[in-house]
Predict the structure.
Amino acid sequence: MTHSISQSRRSLLTAAAAGLGLATSGGISRATVPSCLRGTGDLGVVVERASGSVLVVETSRRTSLGRVEGLGDLSHASVVFSRDERYAYVFGRDGGLTKVDILNLSVERRVIQAGNAIGGAISDDGRIVAVSNYEPGGVRFFDAGTLEPIAEVPAIDRYGARSKTVGLVDLPFGRFAWSLYDGGEIWLADFQRRGNTPMLTRIFDIGRLPYDGVVTSDGRWYVAGLFGEDALVRLDLWSERLHPERVLDGYGKGEAPLPVYKMPHMEGWAAVGDRLLLPAVGRQEVLMVERDTFRSVATIPVHGQPVFVVARPDGRQAWVNFAHPYNDVIEVIDIPSASVVHRLRPGPAVLHMEFTPRGHEVWISVRDANRIDVYETLNFTKVTELAAGKPSGIFFTSRAHRIGL
């Protein structure tokens, strides 16, 4: 009798599992797994600037999965990711904000939110996407799920004049920071305390023409580059009193400046331990400074005017690309010796570099050769290349979990 009851129970469980689409093995039920299921941790997107499209790639097998088109003017595009790494938010120069489903290779939604935009950010909780605008200026905030607008902060300086906004970054706990290019101010928006109505803090007298901004990976220092001066300005965001502090003041004083062929991108600074490596504006140098004091440690001569200085994730190396006419070259800086130890020549118009999450490989966009090169970073060996139409920015989903990216 007991044996019959046990058999009947097993039969009922098996039938129930079959009805629910479950498989049973050794008394354990498990869901049937679709063959198309995949994770997102090794995915990324490559901006194809000329065609208004992005290439979805995966780094494990170094392949292209497909292309998503119809994203507008991507001549100065940037990308952030949702917390689950499924969606890429693409910020176009034409004011377009596009939510791309990188698993389905499709546009989830697209809105034109301004006339001329210059990048964006996403809050640490993944709830709010922010877009920085040149025209009409200011920052607009959107619901990350629906792209419905939730707030707008016009950039009106203390004299009543409109300004372009630059250097927009996310900060911990639902906050954002940006700079007013024309107004010489830094603004902070705090959504944590007021829901969808941000509390604003304005910092005046920061210097002339802040052209970009960056936040350190711990969320402590917001640093803006000053196009109108040989200096930087920083804010200690851990301090109760926010006071702008000039650093590296006059670092180029007394030297004949070179023409600036391309402004460096501050989000490409290399942070390695207690050091920061940053491109010197208009000079063929990379500056190494102490992270906390910004005291100069070393000046490293390089091949041309640096644009991106990108740290390998382990912090041992920094890879540097350059402005025209030296933009076919990449140099590798060894951090302990503060010297260039290797030079690569991938091809014409090297625009961007992105390391795999642990840094064993680096992906490099070679715009005028219409390809992506992949290099192994220990011995500098080229392992493969992928076709891409006029590629520029490369963005991997590991950025979803880092402050300021």
